[in-house]
# Entry
Amino acid sequence: MERRKSLMLKIGNVEIGGNAPVSIQSMTTTPTSDVEATLAQILVLADAGCDIVRLGIPDTESARAVKAIKSRGCPIPVVADIHFDHKLALICADGGADGLRINPGNLKKPEHVRDVVKACKNANIPIRIGVNAGSLDRAKYPVPNAEAMVQSALEHIGLLEKEDYYEIKVSLKSHDVVTMIEANRMFTRLRNYPLHLGVTEAGDYAQALVKNSIGIGALLLDGIGDTIRVSITGDPLLEIDAARMILRSLGLRMEGVEIVSCPTCARKEFDVERTVREFLDRTRGIKKYIKVAIMGCVVNGPGEASDADFGVAAGKSGAVLFKKGEVVKKIAAGQILEALLEEAGKYR
Ligand code: SF4
# Structure
């Protein structure tokens, strides 16, 4: 698929826009002022495949913690998420944040915008303007539709461009999938700043996965989108898995384990569901792309999953292990998971 040519910028060592791969973002859920807990969560997210992490900065203590987090082995770039208070932005920029998420139109005075831009220029870091339909100024935009979101983004952008600042990334999020898609499509017809995509306030894992797969997926198929976040109520680790699945399904980033497993039926010879779940749990750390088949019976097993790197299909007296559709050995019943894990270990 042909991707939109957005302006390129860098967040830490991660390239965004241009021809760079679509990057994965998430946000910590610990109090940012708790440096130990936040750093521990960042390490888990980074290990799972998170490229950029965002930290909420509600107060001065949190802003000061950014410096400690950055200087104590934070393995991925950090974006400080600030609302309204320019002083917090200045502390974070000076403390080594790799980017800010702040809307200049929400700062109280024009000189505050100037100070934040100056700090970002000094630190050589970009700003993300994040427009959420739900937090639009209703006095200005009584109807929070796609057009209002884009107009709001353009207003914020104008304030930064006035200060001769162009290291800008934009997000246009809504919990309504269609509004989010329309706003992003509309924006790309007007400006070429890189876009961070996501359906916000998307709900629990199942609903968030569906909404984001449709919203982010539709835009990525249009070639739109430079970074993504699958917003989920729950453990942010789930967001990384979900984002990787979306990118992998579209062939944009072939990483991690893709499962080909049958839905099971009356012919199944073992507990496919449990095997899939346990296999995925125990291979989460694999970075390399592998396609693994777990099929309930030999009737359709090796044939239907012939493009898998390896897989299993069960029969009456055990199972077979196959590679690229060719049976390579027999496995005793009860040894299926172990045989799969042994093969997966070769890809670590
Ligand atoms: S692979 Fe076998 S068990 Fe699985 S759905 Fe197909 S026929 Fe049923």
